[in-house]
Specification:
The complex is a heterodimer. By secondary structure, chain A is of the alpha/beta class. In chain A, about 35% of the residues lie in helices and about 20% in strands. Chain A has a domain of about 180 residues: 3-Layer(aba) Sandwich (Rossmann fold), CATH 3.40.50.300. The relative contact order of chain A is 0.15. Chain B has a six-stranded mixed sheet with strand order 6-7-8-3-9-10, with helices on both faces. Classes of the chains: A alpha/beta, B alpha/beta.
Chain lengths: ~350, ~350
Amino acid sequence: MSDILVSEQSAPGADGSGRPSGRLLEVDDLRVEFRTRDGVAKVINGVTYHVDAGETLAVLGESGSGKSVTAQTIMGILDTPPGFVTGGQVRFHGKDMLKMSAEQRRRIRGEGIAMIFQDSLSALNPVFTVGFQIAEQFRVRRGMSRSDAKKRAIEMLDQVKIPNAKGRFSNYPHQFSGGMRQRAMIAMSLALDPEVLIADEPTTALDVTVQAQIMDLLGELQRERQMGMILITHDLGVVADVADRIAVMYAGRIVEEANVYDLYAKPAHPYTLGLLNSIPRLDEKGQELRTIKGLPPNLMNIPSGCPFNPRCPMAQPVCREKLPPLLQIGSGRASACHFAEELVNRD
Amino acid sequence: MTENIIEVRDLVKHYPVTRGIVFKKTTGHVKAVDGVSFDLKAGETLGVVGESGCGKSTLARVLMNLERPTSGQVLYKGQDISKLSGGALRRLRRQIQLVMQDPYTSLNPRMTVGDLIGEPFEIHPEVAPRGSRRTKVKELLDLVGLNPEHINRYPHQFSGGQRQRIGIARALALRPEVIVCDEPVSALDVSIQAQVMNLLEKLQAEFGLSYVFIAHDLSVVRHLSDRVAVMYLGKMVEVGTEDEIYERPTHPYTQALLSAVPVPDPTLRDNKAIIRLTGDVPSPISPPSGCRFRTRCWKAQDLCAQEVPLLQIRPGSDHPSACHFAERREIVPAHEVA
């Protein structure tokens, strides 16, 4: 769905080395921990990624990998306490947002960076109409009159292809179906024309036919507006369809980063390989699935060395002792595995 | 030919929609399941796919005899299960067990794993005499890949995948012949989902179980099922072997559904033809006349509004399809490319 134009544009920047400045949004060595009664959970342990205008970065990971917490930190909606940022930067147009005042951050939210959430029913306020919630932004942030704001809100609903937008303006969220609510949320997040859109599992709660509609819509709106998009998901199928680049997260770290074609063709981290092996495919009659053994680590007690080593089929003594850093391998991709080269070069 | 262990005939389940509190008035019916027939053979897995609201979970509840059907029959080895009561019903319940979707809410948080898995033995003491129960439970834990030492732990001490294993162990406790799995892996992470799917396959081979496997994930269903039934708005629109449904679907809804599933291979993104359905599923309170899919179907004609298409084998096809204009269509061009 993401067009060729976009992927070509983003390709030179994919190695993370070209164009050091001029990045739209950069997360740099971010660290977040949750201080709970039972102990400190290190949820994010040095995450670095960036997204440029017009490109789609997919952040892939299972529950507890830290992908949503990273997004919450970018948006400044991390629950503090228990969550605390203990290091790193989140730069938007080169400026560190973590050092900004609450008022400065508020100005970026919506206009600079907007977010859509997985569960549209709880993300929308049930006691206000959908139209009011969209129009509110135009009144508060753009100083429009009530009637102008309403007109713009109806335009937005129309843009996300809600049939009979005018009539739907005064509906409450519960009167919308799941797919329509997700559309309304997209309309709301795009109202102030953000430069970056963070989509946190936007289609996970939806049926496949509706999922296809929503992903199409997002792709279309992104192309029109040349938005940067961070797509957070666990669905390897959706990622293959829309992403330009992929960052795979495990236990609060990026374990692999690559463009979408390289990652699926030759994963450079055993975790990525394990994930790809463990999904049943629609176009293949399944044999026994090759699973990743064991469970994701407890974030209060992350294994020493490589956090994936207890589950890794390739693990060697060095993996238990030394944490592999995320290193460039070949062109435009990085892996945090001591044996990344071997993995890529084998057949 | 293998025997049918469950036969479902014209099954209908309507839920009344009422108005008023004191003077209740029925204003309509939610037609959750509306005339479904199929057979489940011994030792096979029948996949049931469909989107939310198509009636697949209601079907599971009726199969479990948790709901009485409005009309129609569910026959277990020739016996109508909704007519059973007392001891006969209790004996039947031993044979058909359920694995539920949500491993977080389907286990009582105040009971230990040993009590949870051992509870079926309280109701059916003939399966395991009191003295041998703990040994039995430990065997079951071992069978589903959990540490038997953890028999005294509580559900919150387990991860989602482990809890689903507890749910499976509980369903296996009475050595049933049929297990109805209602979205057993959809709440789990990818790597854990694969582990549970492999476990289900292993158990089937070991005990000769029959599964009714209900899920919305078409890839998961294909992986596990021998035969697949596709549901839309309370009706079955197409039934066939896994191959017939996934390689040669003839119903437009099946075709649209399959085409919309994202394939985890980026090289296919440009030569995939997604059939885009417009709009949402209509309300099951007042489904469209004739074919229920016609409001979203690109092939719809006048005939579709007038006549309900029967689920039957149509010319040029080898399996039943409920479409007046059923025909094959290449929907996953991936095969030619790969």
